[in-house]
Model the fold of this input.
Amino acid sequence: MGSKELRNKFLKFFEERGHKIIPSASLIPENDSTTLFTGSGMQPLVPYLMGEPHSQGKRLVDIQKSFRAEDIEEVGDNRHTTFFEMMGNWSLGDYFKKEQLNWIFEFLVKEIQLDPKRLYVSVFRGNKEIGIEKDSKSVEIWKDIFKNYNIEANDIDFAEKNGMQDGRIFYYDETKNWWSRSGIPVNMPIGEIGGPDSEIFYDLGEDLKRHENSEYKDQPCHINCGCGRFIEIGNSVFIEFIRSEKRFDPLPQKNVDFGGGLERISMVLQGKNNIFETDLFINIIKKIEDLSGLKYADNMSAFEVIADHLRAATFIMGDDKGVMPSNIDQGYIVRRLIRRAIRYGRQLDIKKDLWIQEVSQVIIDDYKSVYPELFKNSKFIMNNLEKEEIKFGKTLEKGLKEFEKLFSHYKGDFKEFYLEVENLFNLYQTYGFPVELSIEEINKKRIQYGGVPISKDMEENFLNLFQEEIKKHQELSRTAAAGKFKGGLADTSEQTTKLHTACHLLLAALRKVLGNHVEQKGSNITAERLRFDFSHSEKLTNEQIKEIEEIVNKAIKNNLPITFEEMSLEDAKKQGASGVFESKYGEKVKVYTIGEKDNFFSKEICGGPHVKSIGNLGYFKIIKQESSGAGIRRVKAILE
Done:
């Protein structure tokens, strides 16, 4: 079964069970200070999981674009990716464990015909210290489900210590079977929601001898073992708690949040043991083979890094809130992905100029029917890839010159080369010169002077020291940036809400003064000030700034009415609303209008908080402007 058919079957299955199909939210979160990217399906739905009514009802289904930067270093093991698609179904205070577990098993076994004998599940062990009981209800439901398929389902505790023990249902602690945006319960801030979960694992087969050939061979094998025999393909989260000051209180409604990795389910459906051999990656891998003249089977790790990183970068830049490479926030991650792909391309000896554009074009062609924004924004993607490849080429050139200066006094005696970690860290920090390239260059010098390549142990020692140096730097950076807010709204306080509303006035004024090409490219709002990024290629003149301020303050002085209504996306477009048009399924959206309905000052699609009276905002003043990247300007403003 191809991935497109899997997508359609999942959406249809839950649509037939009363779920409304909703679109994937942007990869760039709106009004969420917890993360730089949308890393799960639940992030855009948090207000509704907490009780706010959703325009489409209590049962929803979607396939959410997701990105997790923390997995960058994991890519190259056949199963990890940074960008992924999460198939999700949702109950917002409607059905709960019995319906969810029965339906998802029915989908996996009857609808897409996975072998039930190869499915295993985990549940929450419970934790008396936080007052959460063992999830006996899920165990009871799972036993009945497996019984329907003539499978004996023994429930086993502490398999991580004692192995499988002929079990089918396994208990684990909160590090494995609890889900919230902030991880385990003790890390959840006050007001954060979460709950126990039940994961589904697929057995790739004992005959693969994965365990015996892995670093875990001396430990008992179980479904959460790291050996790779079992792979998690889905997780039903029961979001029913909210963290209070001293305990976990029940939410007003019990919710279901299911997430199933499209890539992983495609892998098992297509009889593969490797995500990168599925139809989602096969064309990308073939393009890299054509460019390098090498075979994937002989260079798997490098191919996987290139394929994953360029796919992720293409999706982030191709999002309707697209982010370009830079040295801060989301842009830094995009830059890191692209440069890491280029570096691995060097390992494969790809010599063709602008080759990363060719790989990206394959990705756009493969996905444009599902995500048309990639095709729509392809020029933006290609332009930024070209600039970044050229810029990184210059970085490498500078880095190599500095490397020669640092190591000019060495003549092959590199036994203790890793003591130079500080020098190489400075090279990395100042010039962006990757440490792996430093090691390559050191090896070349050793061979040049008749030495032998650095041993694996020596390289590992050096990389460990290098990581320690990076951690030191990160700690210093964290201290320096304490309290720095990354994007969206820092909170929902009155002053932050006022500044968020002022953003609507600012965008309308910018369009009136500069032209209709102006679009929002990001915002960062605290109780003290707003920061607003928008598309415009030239620095604002003093006269333009003054005119923008006058337009905003006139709207405030006139106390223009502010209203909102829910409508279809098509109606929002017809009414001239601005915003990121992401929906493909006719979802209703919130449209905020400032001014009279037929003679409005501002009309935007927005899900954030707003004041009820414009006249109470105060005096609007722009305090700074700067560039935020090619073709992007940034202004900072306050309300006095």
In short: The first strand starts at residue 20 and ends at 21. Residues 281-399 form one domain. The CA atoms of residues 310 and 338 lie 6 Å apart.
